[in-house]
Amino acid sequence: MAKGKEVRVTVILECTNCVRKGVNKESKGISRYITQKNRHNTPSRLELKKFCPYCYKHTIHGEIKK
Which CATH architecture has domain 8-18+25-62? Predict the structure, then answer.
């Protein structure tokens, strides 16, 4: 019996605030988190509010392609 696509998939969340600004003098990098999501429950892109150590505040982190 062949297995289909896995239900739980690993995704990377990236700070949207750092990406929009670009990497400049203020931010020394781009904050990224690795997490898992359920494909059946969340078919759209995942967005969570996480802490960004480069912005020094909680910002929205969106799912990116691998």
Answer: Single Sheet (2.20)
Q: What is the pTM of this model?
A: 0.77
pLDDT of the residue at 1:
55
Q: Where are the domains of the chain?
A: 8-18+25-62
Could you tell me the end-to-end alpha-carbon distance of the chain, in angstroms, rounded to an integer? 29
- Residue 44 or 26, more confident: 44
Q: Which two tokens stand for residue 66?
A: 């691998």
Q: What distance in Å separates the CA atoms of residue 35 and residue 48, rounded to the nearest whole number? A: 11
